[in-house]
């Protein structure tokens, strides 16, 4: 694998890892069913 492809994979993995805290916060505040769905009156997420 070339250096460019290696760094592209690193950036893609890092970008995917950045979503983990947001998703865990959303599940913790709203619950799993509201986090995967679209509730009519969603609770605000924690700062």
Describe what you observe in this structure.
This protein has helices at residues 3-30, 32-36. With 47 residues, it is mainly alpha-helical.
Give a quick precis of the structure.
This protein has 47 residues and is mostly helical. It has two helices and no strands.
| Beta-strand percentage range | under 5%
Instruction: Provide the gyration radius in Å.
Output: 16 Å
Distance between termini?
Answer: 40 Å
For the report, how would you describe the main beta sheet?
Answer: none
SSE layout and pairings?
Elements: H1 3-30, H2 32-36
Task: List descriptors.
70% helix; single chain; mainly alpha; elongated
